Amino acid sequence: MLQETKFHLPSxxxxxxxxxxxxxxxxxxxxxxxxxxxxxxxxxxxxxxLLPPFRADLxxxxxxxxxxxxxxxxxLDKYTFLIALADRNSTLFYRVLMENLLExxxxxxxxxxxxxxxxxxxxxxxxRGMYIxxxxxGRIAEVLDNWPSDEVDIIVISDGxxxxxxxxxxxxxxxxxxxKLVLYxxxxxxxxxxxxxxxxxxxxxxxxxxxxxxxLGITHRRVHGDEFYEIVDEFVQAATARWPNVxxxxxxxxxxxxxxxxxxxxxxxxxxxxxxxxxxxxxxxGLLASMRVIDEHLSDQRIVFCGAGSAAVGIADMxxxxxxxxxxMSTEEARKLVWMVDSRGLVTTTRESGxxxxxxxxxxxxxxxxxxxxxVKRVKPTILIGASGQAHTFTEDVVKTMHEHCExxxxxxxxxxxxxxxxTAVEAYHxxxxxxxxxxxxxxxxxxxxxxxxxxxxxxxxFIFPGVGLGAVVCGATKVTDEMFFTAxxxxxxMVTKEExxxxxIYPDLSKIRQISLAIAAAVCRLAWDEGLAQYPEPxxxxxxxxDCMYHPDYRPYIAAEE
Length: 563
Ligand code: NAD
Hints:
CATH topology of the largest domain: Rossmann fold
Number of domains: 2
Radius of gyration: 24 Å
Bound molecules: nicotinamide-adenine-dinucleotide
């Protein structure tokens, strides 16, 4: 149903009426401007004497922050420093982050966020987001009512069961919803005050955490089955009742929950799973750009996956949908181009112990093979994608064997963090004499080989999910569809410049993330309006409308509200 209202964002320039005074303002990160308050604001808001006399502008504050930030050498210290800044002054935090995005994304997100999660109970300082736990069952609506804002555009929720490639981190997983939402704001301009990170604490089976006296989650073994789904159902109901247009992003759930959760809710509420759909789209985009490099079609490739979990199946689904769409073939036919290897070898129809549901469409009707190398020898792949969470699975033998049959092997080592990558950029380039088109999940530096600088692409979901989320939110989408991710992948692939392709990079420069997210969000909106999935009235100029909906970290003038 079409709604009368459109997406409403607080003005960035109109003066904000502030009822708080003095330290109440300085201690509120959403209101605090630190040394930037002008004389009139200091006078009327009770700030006189609470700040040093000199008034600094935002640029100068950024400079001061960076001077202090760069004094830290340990990534975890940098992470703690940035979180502390976000807790003090949200506008300054986002300005710093946006101006130094390439440097800080690996701190606020993978790989450092992984270490931060492992240490979460030990480095914890201040509440951020919400925790819903087992004992809240039956009272989740009441719990969500404690969130101070009636305007929430997006929730990222995780049960901490499969944090990056690090496994079950229980309530420590909170770093991920926090980090992801930071990327939504920096990357696409979702408004920070309207984002809500949630950790669904349904217990942990991590012995180390259960025995850690500083662990902050409930010391209960994980619940599964009906008990798990009842609590999630209650959360979804309560969240959509309080915030009817909210987008829910499922994050870092183990496979056995990730697929069922997505299938359970994808047609009911506005939601998606970035590990499945976002990863799929970013990988598809990388492959589409690779096809631009080798001037071939995806339908002519042979694709071997190492790993058959949510990331691998999400990627394979998206690639097959892409191939089917481009080459007018059925998805089943497209799947014949894919071989999957998991911890038990090639995924085949003849496995005695049966197959998990998500692997069935990719099970091959052929002889088993225990090792990846055996599969590479048999299949002679042109594309090798790693999403196994297992470091060093792309051995020299595997890569060289692949290269024997393929002039320019396309190798994606997507497992995070860096220590889990299936191979490094240096290895991929050296073992193929620089011929490989390489991308990874975590960033690797450029490699100099035979006088050429090879720049590995980072198949970072950040290229996709912020734009898709922004698009879905600002048009008031009723659901997020695979077509939206497919559109996002194509949009991204087209944004890689010819120069970038020549340097072997198949993703655009991450520093252009705002432009990328704008283009993706506009494409998602276009699709939503065309498909009748958008609740808000269509604007004349979608791109301009999306641009106007994006948050920029600037200080707003304040005036004292009458008391
Ligand atoms: P998962 O646990 O769902 O799946 C892991 C899969 O790897 C399983 O099928 C398992 O059987 C298989 N596996 C384990 N050991 C193996 C081995 N030695 N050889 C072959 N297969 C093996 O995890 P997931 O959610 O699919 O994530 C996997 C990895 O992908 C993680 O490291 C994650 O960080 C990464 N990932 C990357 C991106 C990205 O780069 N954009 C996005 C999402 C996930």
